Amino acid sequence: MKSRLAVIMVADVVGYSRMMAEDEEASIVAVRDLNETYVRPHSTNHGGEILKRMGDGWIIAFGSVHAGISCALELLQTLSGNENLKIRIGAHIGEIVEDDEDFYGAWVNLASRLQGQAPPGGMMVSQDLFRQLTGQLAAQFEDAGSFDLKNIPYPVQGNQWRPAQKKKGNAAKGEVPTVLVEEFDFAPATDGIRSHAEELRGQILMNLSRRTGIKTIERAGDGIKTVYRIRGRLRVSGAKARMNVSMALCETGETLFSRNYDGDITDIFEFGDQISAKINADLRIQINAYEANRLEALADDELIVSELRSRAARNFYRATYTSWLRGLELMERAVELAPDDPMSFGMLAVGDVMLHATSYEPMPQERIKQLEDGLNLAIKQAPKVDFLYTARSNLNGLIKGDGDAALRDAENALALNPTYLIGFGLLATALILKNDLTRAIERLEYSMTLSSDDPLEAERTFPLAVCYYLTGQFDKARAVTEALAHANKDNRVLQKLLGMVLRELGDETGAAKQEKMAESLTFVPSIQSLRVLLPQEHAAFADELYSVTRA
């Protein structure tokens, strides 16, 4: 056997499976022409060797970094005008071991995984390879952040390239956002207060560092371009403390978010846990929202997988049935680009589950099995990601009605991230299924205190109203339901629930009015009143309330 150092490139045709499903014969002809007219001639001209053809893909080796990257960019630029046939390329530099029959090397797998993260019509290279680039070649690549890739035991830093004509200014560059958490100010200027401020900053840094799709740094410099700057100021007077946190856009200095958090500092650990939980919940929402705006100028088919996730998250945060359909569409595209990406599959599963729960339609057993298997695999690949456990808890709690499984997953998510807002909502969903309504109310009420800007709060408000009703707390049920029904006058489920509450409070006139209003409306799926699965003890209530969802 012999070995050699090479630039390894893995290329494939974007959306080939879909193309084959639409027109198999035309797809085969198109890929054959792509190989003979473009891939093979370009590779040969730059001294490349096609090691393997894989239907719609190629593994190509180059002995020169400059030759390999130049070949890839020329090929991609040549094809950039073809909207019907796009390729993407992943590349790494490493050792290839060969014998008379085949070639081997872990680096081929790494290049293949990077290809799965490349933008359609573009290229993703490892940082090891990027460091070998100089001058104009290096200048064409942008930081794409860190990736946890299947069967790669460590995070891999990537740099991406998009066709030049696709760029529409700085907002469309698609660089992974870097968040700078500056040292916090504090007053009075004592060592004790300084220590409290440092502890809070440390907790915020730790929480942000767990996020995927962003980079968190403690100090500026070393040529690092920061997108967002987070500042904090802790003021203490006796036992009272106020923490102000703001987030600004570094490029313009515009303040995107600012909030005060008050508390009792007698127990600094309890204060730190409570305040950092609220700050973390708010920053998670704010960064997701503004990050999607940064990529607004790019079309869907120009986005890499992490950017599709960001755009989908913005649509999910809009909290309408239409926006959730749009989010699901984006995640289907992401999974098509990277079938092994656990976060993308998790978001796809959440979108699918929520739309079924919102429309009150049963999910086919075959689809349940697909989502269940996919989520099990995703968690196996990324066992430290809180979101994936909530995605599986969502499926178990809202579709399968398995309270025990939903509870385990919600608890696992909160064990990884005790401040995770979504985790509390799903914990309550599981407790409702187990008929532990008192604890469900406690968790839902607590989640409401974590963020005042949560666009998905209604996902927890409607279940809270249901729990108040079922535990006989009709005054509280009325307050919550009235607010929801007033904000959603065309929502048949909410108007029906308000009528049921008013009847329990003895307001027969008001109840009759609400029920008449509910009858005049047509059921339209709404995120504001997604189906809450209930245990058998409350089947009669569920039958009456949910009857308005049926024609």
Please provide a written account of the structure:
The chain is α/β, with parallel strands linked by helices and 551 residues long. The chain folds into four domains: 165 residues, Nucleotide cyclase, GGDEF domain (Alpha-Beta Plaits, 2-Layer Sandwich), CATH 3.30.70; 116 residues, Rossmann fold; 152 residues, Tetratricopeptide repeat domain (Serine Threonine Protein Phosphatase 5, Tetratricopeptide repeat, Alpha Horseshoe); 97 residues, Serine Threonine Protein Phosphatase 5, Tetratricopeptide repeat (Alpha Horseshoe), CATH 1.25.40.10. Helix content is 53%, strand content 17%. Strands 1, 2, 3, 4, 5, 6, 7 and 8 form an eight-stranded mixed β-sheet that branches. Strands 9, 10, 11, 12, 13 and 14 form a six-stranded mixed β-sheet that branches. Helix 11 runs parallel beside helix 13. The relative contact order is 0.06.
Notable characteristics:
single chain, Rossmann fold, alpha/beta, six-stranded mixed beta sheet, eight-stranded mixed beta sheet, Alpha-Beta Plaits, 551 residues, Serine Threonine Protein Phosphatase 5, Tetratricopeptide repeat, 4 domains, globular
From the 3D structure, determine the CATH topology of the largest domain. Answer: Alpha-Beta Plaits
| Portion in strands | 15-25%
Give the CATH H-level superfamily of the largest domain: Nucleotide cyclase, GGDEF domain
Output the number of helix runs: 21
Largest sheet: 8 strands, mixed
Give the CATH class of the largest domain. Alpha Beta
Q: How many distinct domains?
A: 4
How does the helix and strand content classify structurally? alpha/beta
Shape: globular
Model regions low in confidence, pLDDT < 50 over at least 5 residues: 165-174
Number of β-strand runs: 14
Mean pLDDT: 87
Any idea what the radius of gyration is? 26 Å
Helix content: 40-55%
- State the separation between the terminal residues, measured CA to CA: 71 Å
Quickly give the CATH architecture of the largest domain.
2-Layer Sandwich
